[in-house]
Amino acid sequence: MSPEPDKDIRQFLTKQVLSDPRRDDRTDIKKSLSYIAGERVHKPMIYVGMATCGRIAGADKTFEAIREYLQEHDIDADLVEGGCVGFCMEEPLVDVQLPGKARLSFSRVTAEKVQSLLDDILNDNLPDLPVLGQYTDTILQPWEDVPGIESHPFFSGQHRMLLEHCGIIDPVSAAQYIAKGGYQAFIDTIARHTPAEVCRMIEESGLAGRGGGGFPAGKKWSAALNTVSDQKFFVCNAVESDPGSYMNRAIIESNPHRLIEAVLIAAYATGANKAYIFIRKEFRLAIKRLQATIGQAGAYGLTGHHIFDSGVNIDVVIREGARAFVCGEETALNNSIEGKRAMPASKPPYPAERGLWNKPTVVNNVETLFNVPLIVKNGPEWFRSLGTESSKGTKLYTLSGRLKNYGTVEVLMGTTFREIIEGAGGGLAGKLPFKAIVLGINSGSYITAENLDARVDYESLESIGAALGSGAFVVLDQATCMVDLARYFTAFFKKESCGKCIPCREGTARMLEVMEQVTRKPSDTNSFQTLERFKGVMQLKSLASVISDTSLCSLGKSAPNPVLNTLKHFKHEFDAHIFDRKCEAGVCTDLRVYEINVDACTGCAVCFKKCPVDAIIGTPRYPHFIVQDKCIGCGTCFDVCKFNAVIIK
Amino acid sequence: MELGHILNKFPNRRREDLISLLQSIQDEYGFLSEEIIHIVGDYLDISINKIFGVATFYDNFRFGPLGKYHFRLCHGTACHVAGSATILKELEKLLQISHGETDKNGLFSLEVVSCIGACGLAPLIEVNETFYTNITLDILKDLVHSFREKESAAL
Lengths: 649, 155
Description:
The structure holds two protein chains of two kinds. Chain A has five domains: 37-147, Glutaredoxin (3-Layer(aba) Sandwich); 174-379, Rossmann fold (3-Layer(aba) Sandwich), CATH 3.40.50.11540; 394-477, Ubiquitin-like (UB roll), CATH 3.10.20; 482-580, NADH-ubiquinone oxidoreductase 51kDa subunit, iron-sulphur binding domain (de novo design (two linked rop proteins), Up-down Bundle); 592-648, Alpha-Beta Plaits (2-Layer Sandwich). Chain A is 39% helix and 13% strand. Chain A contains 26 helices and 18 strands. By secondary structure, chain B is α+β, with helices and mostly antiparallel strands.
């Protein structure tokens, strides 16, 4: 062992790999690279999936337990704080690789299971614990009777190119990333291509923005490059504030070097010498890992001044956002970086012409950027060959809701929603029938049962009045009330409206009032109120069109979508709420009618005592009754009854 | 109030440092007081109206102290569908505060956040950076009870 292994590896990777254009043909370095990349190991390697999702599932404790075990038994092994492979359902995940043997992935390894896992595996025995699969490799000896991880139903339907290294490499090891082929695209770009060539490459590839808008990324880049200015900026939008999606955070935590490489290429192509990564402050782990990554990239000479003797200067800076949904809008985001309130500005001028401090600024989403190194490396034709006629590449989704499996998945454009649900999603959890998929709050689109065969593709989704969304994929079954969900979305928009445009600020508030009239209990049940509710709903459509026509930014424009889409697909639920005052799913608690089952009531009088409005009458030891006119539907009697005598009608 | 060591981290005194500076101060002191806003205003040469304007715009900034146990309830789409509205009602009842408030003893505070990002484990809450997942009303009652017990034992 040399005294400074890190420095040796760094020199080797810089000189023999990154700076050598013939690296792909060199067979002499392949073996060393596979050891650095962690594909082959000299000593046991134990890898714990420790992205935020893993930590929430208890990976911290597992990691501690493994460390203690190794210390106690004096075992020399590499213990890695890893990323997320995407299968959050099965976390905490622990991968073990023994020298010469294929890597195994164990699921749901809680701290208590560590002892039995390591006792067996370190003695070359397969432990009796749930195994997700093994990573098959041509050289390494496979484990008997263990399926390959790629054949697992969660993974088999996916097309993993953005997620390829996630949950496999050490996220904060520049050496592993470079040994896996990372940063080569960037070095080749600055050595061989002009910025205009890179912009053309991205334009030809057909890469579209994944934040929700779907604007061609290459066009944005060219616009910034062609604008004359003494200073240009590049901004990576890592705000990801759409509730229900966390795949951007997951990929940053699992492979931060890929993001840095993409940002460097993008900054070079757009002529920017300063790049900001704007990320939510709550993403503590992602920020920590990005900071470590930027430090390492600097040590390798990949950022800063005169990168790899090319004369290119790019600084990468992390900016922590202070949380506001509207920050996801690019002009608002730029204002936030400047230290102002995140208020959107009117476009044009587009940020690519006049953005941060009135200088040309390109803003790209994390997922969009993750594609860039691959496109540069494999060429635009390769990327164009993936996906459908109108949409190229893949899409990341965060699966959640009533599915058997949840986590982050990557599917090829053109995959149907049914395939996602039944493949990676593992079908519906529970017995209730399917109702809809919500594709994020900012698209406000629902995929209903009759549209399940629609494809993940900009055009085909537009034809059914939906949008690709930012990546949330919440599956709902019949236990969800769509009217309540629309009310929740409206309340969200009302809270998050920045207040600049009156139609958005006031309109969302009015919209929420109407929605609350529909979902709340009336003070009395005369027909006039039914008419009022009906009138409110009738006016929703014209209110919605005013909000979306006259708001400046996409937040305001999309604010009415959830309500409009609910009216379109689930009008019968609205009707039931308005006229019958019934919530079939039983979610709108205000609309519940409580009654006491006379046969089950023992007359214990607990409900009688607890009722806050004295709506329950009766004598002790005899069945009680609820006076419906007095009842406010709070549900206290239902909660306190020990004999299940209070029933919901 | 001693802010020099934080202010020194931002020697350029630019407007773009404002949000980072306020975040650093809040990380140390827990919230932004009027005094802090005045000091920051003098330091960056920005009117305090503008600083309040920025600070009140973003959800992260607070103007009062947090409780010893800070509850963050996730109310994202997945959590909402899994019933976090009911959890919120129950939590407000148990802690005897509304969301966004801190109780009189400075023991509990409650914040509703838009999405913590563990949608598969919904509904979930975070108390002082520890996560509690797949929350039910019973788990919630036990949790709050255990915190109260711990506090009365400490007294």
